[in-house]
């Protein structure tokens, strides 16, 4: 029996759905050394898109993940480790390379190490210099080496919002901009899981990275693209396309959320029998039961008011949440509701679509509704 592993992480090859326009745009940006910031809610496939474009460009690359950074030194170490990874991919040690970086070496200590591929150049940050100084110098050295080699490269920096969260006003963003705005040798792709914080980093005129990048906002993939995608696998497994009502139900329950689309398809394609709409409904509810505790853990940090608003939006209160009727009915203050809505948006629990508030996570809506239904019948 064929096994279809729709990925919950990185989607590649045949499991990468559409994003044709976005992929081509990102490829063009990489080739022209236009830095890019990818902005979308969590689990929309930003990293998958970046990997696909980088693979198509066939350039040396590295992913630098800042998720575990707790201070500016962690960020410094991660960025310099990424620079070393690129250097290892593009060059062996020669006198020309060493001479080309001499003018940039002020605090960084270049060392030679023997590895399985021979001698390699490794940059070691200076304990006596600041993190911005070490980062700036490492990027300048990387640029010089790439220029000497007539080579381009890509740095994918994930969870970049952590720079703002754990190293605010430490000068790291300014250090990155100092080199990034001049280089024609490497491209930086910034992404993260807090889109509102990430957006503010690049759109606040008082911040160093203001207007450094081309912004790419990832939306949900269109119905027709998902239908083609799903049917391409259905024809392999069941030798025919799924029924329109089955496809419609898949799109309806997942709301075209990329992560949950793949999670549901994994379950559907484990069936031996040809799936019908009722099978989709059953598997979706099973997924909600399975993910229930994880989703509750994600909402643990919410205040009582934030939870109340999340529940209200789940039940169709999509607008006028600061209006007189809603505030009076729930005995709430307008300023408190406004602040709670802003915080829910910042944490990607809700978003505004066509002027209406919507819960971002379609499975969270199911869990909330089921919980309230059980309470109502208890």
Structure description:
With 378 residues, the chain is of the alpha/beta class. The protein has 16 helices and 9 strands. It has helices at 20-31, 46-57, 72-90, 95-101, 131-148, 162-166, 172-180, 195-203, 223-237, 244-254, 258-268, 277-298, 304-314, 324-330, 334-346, 362-377; strands at 36-39, 61-65, 109-115, 118-124, 153-158, 186-191, 214-217, 350-353, 356-359. The chain has a 5-stranded parallel sheet with strand order 2-5-6-1-7, sandwiched between helices. Strands 3-4 form a two-stranded antiparallel sheet. A hairpin with a 2-residue loop joins β8 and β9. The longest helix has 22 residues, at 277-298. It starts with 19 loop residues before the first helix and ends with a helix. The mean pLDDT is 92.
Q: What is the number of beta strands?
A: 9
Question: What is the helix content?
Answer: 40-55%
The profile of the biggest β sheet is: 5 strands, parallel
| Count of helix runs | 16
Q: Calculate Rg over CA atoms.
A: 24 Å
What is the assembly state of the chains in this entry?
A: single chain
Low-confidence stretches: none
Q: What are the secondary-structure elements, in order, as H or E? A: HEHEHHEEHEHHEHEHHHHHHHEEH
**How far apart lie the N and C ends?**
44 Å
What spatial order of strands do you see in the largest sheet?
2-5-6-1-7
Strand content: 5-15%
The coarse overall form would be: globular
The average pLDDT value, as a whole number, equals 92
Structural class: alpha/beta
């Amino acid at each position: 029996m064929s096994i279809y592993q729709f990925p919950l992480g990185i989607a590649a090859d045949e499991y990468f759905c559409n994003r044709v326009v976005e992929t081509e745009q990102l490829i063009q940006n990489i080739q022209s050394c236009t830095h890019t910031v990818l902005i979308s809610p969590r689990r929309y496939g930003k990293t998958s898109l970046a990997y696909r474009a980088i693979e198509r460009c066939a350039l040396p690359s590295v992913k630098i993940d800042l998720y575990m950074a707790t201070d500016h030194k962690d960020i410094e170490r991660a960025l310099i480790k990424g620079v070393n990874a690129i250097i290892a991919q593009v060059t062996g040690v020669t006198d020309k390379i060493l001479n080309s970086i001499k003018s940039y070496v002020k605090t960084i200590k270049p060392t030679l190490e023997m590895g399985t591929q021979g001698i390699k150049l490794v940059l070691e940050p200076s304990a006596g210099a600041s993190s911005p100084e070490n980062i700036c110098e490492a990027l300048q050295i990387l640029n010089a080496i790439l220029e000497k080699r007539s080579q381009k490269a890509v740095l994918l920096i994930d969870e970049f919002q952590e720079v703002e969260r754990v190293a605010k006003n430490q000068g790291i963003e300014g250090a990155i901009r100092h080199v990034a705005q001049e280089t024609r040798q490497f491209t930086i792709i910034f992404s993260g899981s807090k889109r509102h914080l990430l957006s503010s980093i690049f759109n606040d005129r008082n911040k160093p990275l203001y207007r450094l990048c081309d912004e790419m906002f990832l939306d949900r993939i269109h119905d027709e693209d998902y239908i083609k995608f799903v049917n391409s696998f259905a024809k392999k497994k069941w030798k025919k396309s799924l029924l329109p009502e089955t496809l419609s139900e898949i799109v309806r329950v997942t709301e075209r959320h990329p992560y949950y689309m793949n999670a549901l398809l994994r379950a559907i394609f484990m069936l031996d029998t040809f799936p019908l709409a009722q099978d989709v409904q059953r598997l979706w509810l099973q997924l909600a039961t399975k993910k229930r505790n994880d989703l509750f853990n994600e909402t643990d940090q919410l205040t009582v008011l934030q939870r109340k608003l999340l529940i209200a939006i789940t039940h169709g209160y999509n607008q006028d949440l600061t209006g007189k009727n809603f505030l009076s009915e729930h005995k709430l203050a307008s300023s408190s509701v406004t602040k709670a809505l802003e915080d829910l948006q910042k944490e990607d629990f809700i978003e505004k679509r066509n002027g209406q508030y919507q819960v971002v996570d379609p499975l969270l809506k199911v869990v909330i509704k089921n919980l309230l239904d059980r309470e109502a019948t208890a």
